[in-house]
Amino acid sequence: MGFDLAHTISALSKLALRTSRNRRSQEEIDFFNWLDAALCKELPGNVEAINFNLYEDGGDKWSAELAGTSAFDESSSDWACHEVYTTRDMPFVLMKESNWKTVESLFVSLLEKYLDGGKYASALKKYRAVGVGFVDGDLHILYKK
To answer: What does the UniProt keyword field contain (predicted)?
Structure first.
């Protein structure tokens, strides 16, 4: 009888730990939903790479847009300027009291999680690269073919 109780407690503990590891934040849920909506339709055929442009809008408001580019050159971040498609009219908006570095790290983490298991991760991975960064800062290449 004691073994059954111990076994049950152990199994429940493992389940609770697994559940807490898999729990997604509201920011992650909202971002994944936005990205799913942006990727559910085919992007233009001349898109070679994807970059996520980040903006500081002021007043604890931050924005991200998906930009499809016609070029990719790992040695130069200028590839991100060759936009042929954007979600500029439908950006992801994050209200968060934070600094730019923390927000950038948050978006890097969200995108890494999406690339690892998001609904349209394979759609993103068909492009030559996926990057992210503030429009006036450095780019972080998160995926490269």
So the answer is: Plasmid
